[in-house]
Amino acid sequence: MPFGTTTTVEVIEAVDGDTVKVDLQGERENLRILALDTEESSGGGGKPVTPWGKQAKEEAKSFFPEGESITVEFPGDEELDDCLKRYRDNYGRPLVYVHKNDTDFQEHMIRAGYSPYFTKYGYAHFEEYHRRYRDAEREAQAEHIGVWNQLAVNGAVMRDYSSMCAWWELRAEVIQGFRRASHPSLFDSRLDYEKITSRIGEEVVVFTELNDYWRAGAEHVVVGIGSQAQPFQLFLPNVRTTEAGQRLLSLLDTRYVAEDDGVTVTKPHRSYAYVQGELKLYEEKPEIVVTAIDQITDEPPSARSE
Prior knowledge:
This protein is of the alpha+beta class. It folds into 2 domains: 6-158, CATH 2.40.50.90; 179-305, CATH 2.40.50.140. The protein is 31% helix and 27% strand. The protein has helices at residues 51-63, 80-86, 105-111, 127-143, 150-154, 161-181, 193-197, 243-256, 301-305; strands at residues 6-16, 19-24, 27-33, 69-73, 95-100, 103-104, 186-188, 203-209, 212-216, 220-224, 233-236, 259-260, 265-267, 272-282, 285-289, 296-297. The strands form 3 sheets. Strands 7, 8, 9, 10, 11, 14, 15 and 16 form an 8-stranded mixed sheet that branches. A 5-stranded mixed barrel has the order 1-2-3-5-4. The mean pLDDT is 94.
C-alpha cells in the first residue's frame, strides 16, 4: 500500500536505469526515481558509462514498455499539485517512487544488483521502504551480484562503491536529523524553495547543502547548493582579507564541502548544515549573507540551546 500521494502516468520511454519519461497530466516529464543510482548508459554526466549501466537501462525498458500505465508515488502526502512543485531534483525533475501492479521497481533494481540503495539525498521517506531497500541491498551484497561484483559485470572496477556508500550514509544521517527537527520556522533550501522566496527580509534558519564555492570579485565568495532548479546561495563578504573570512573558508573546506568525481570520494564531508541569517534577494536568487562561523552549524539553533 502506498504511503505518499500517488497518480497514474503513461510511459513514453525509459531514459536510464533510474529515469523514465512519462506523460504526467499532459506534460512530458523525466521522473527521477528515488533510492536508485544506476550506472550510466550514455555519456554527458560525471559518472563513467559502463556495460552494467547499459544493462540497467535494458532492464528499465523491459519494466517500462512504451504506453504502459504505472503508478508514481511522491515522498509526501500533500495534494498532487503541491507535490509537483515541492518534490523536484536539482534539474527540476519530479522525485518519485515507481510501482507497477504489485512490484516496487526500486526494490527490484536494488535486489538484482542494478543499483545500491541510494541515500545521498536521504533515506527512503517511508520506514517500510527504508527497511526493504536496505534488506534488498544486503541480499545483493551477500550474493555478490551486479554493482557489488564490478569485475563480473564491467570487466573492471568502474566505481568505488565502498567510499561512495559510506559518504552517502553520512549525508543520510545528517538529513535524518533534519527530518526529526522539522519546525515551522526551519526551511529546507530545496523542498521549501517557494516558501523561502516569499520570506525575503526575514530572519530564518535554512537547512541546505554546501556543494561548492567560488570567487565573486577579488574578496568575496559565493557558496552554492548545486541546484539549477532551486538556486539558493550564501554570500561571504571580504573572506579573502579578514580573519573571520579565513575562518569561514577553513570551516567550509575541512567540515562541509565534499568532493567527488562520480567514481570515488576524495573529501567525504558532512555536506549539509543549518544556516541562520536574513534572507536577501540577489539577481532573483535568495541568499543569506554569512560573516561569522556561528551562522553555520550542525544542528538548528534551538537544538543547540537546549
